[in-house]
Amino acid sequence: MKMNLSHFEASFLFALFTSVVLGVVSKRTDRERLSYGLYVFGCFIVALFGIGWLMYFGHG
Amino acid sequence: MAEKEKTAKEPMPPLNVWLPPVALGWLVPGGGHFLLKRTGRALLLAASITCMFALGLAMRGAMFKPQSGDILTILINWGGFAGDIASGILYLLTTWLGYSQPDVAGQVHDYGTKFLVTAGLLNVLAMVDAYEIAGGRKS
Questions:
Q1: pLDDT per position in chain A (60 positions), as tens?
Q2: Partner A contacted by B43 (CB < 8 A)
């Protein structure tokens, strides 16, 4: 079995799992952990779309 | 005269306090947090790290092996090997049961390789967190 994921799917899953772990280990209260995890996930997604469009325009 | 701020270095917690959760955290992702009775966080860590590793395997990512050669080859392969081995039992089972894949060209394989290494690196973060909780620096 081989899983074939698109760039977006792989990057989305990478962002999701990494954000969960960074949220869990970074802060001191559950509320802070949740908001930090969501913040990191948002940053990943913004970077994903931003760099994606940058490459699109870069290639012409 | 400006006062110098003294930052007292915190003493290291005793070995018998932090070693069991850190060692268990290496062997089983989230295991250190389970031992320290942080069940919710342990489940999140275990699920995230295991899913990341399993996806890496499903995408046929390659496991790094230590190699000698030029400095870049040494850095990449030893660094990747350290990242892979940090996944603990997931890495050991993969190599013992023969699921370790050779390095193949292709974007999906490449993502898989990165997922495998990142799972190990995330486990290192979980181990550091377990160390801090065991030492009383975090709740």
A1: 678 889 999 999 999 999 999 999 998 899 999 999 999 999 999 999 999 999 999 986
A2: no
A11: its two tokens: 């990057």
The interface predicted TM-score (ipTM) is 0.90
B42 to each of A35, B47, B83, how far by Cα in Å? 18, 8, 20
Q: Identify the CA nearest to B77 among candidates B65, B69, B86.
A: B65
Q: List the single residue in A with minimal CA-CA distance to B130.
A: A25
Give, in order, the Cα–Cα distances in Å from A45 to each of A49, B1, B43, B108. 6, 49, 24, 20
Which chain B residues are within 8 Å of A7, Cβ to Cβ? 107
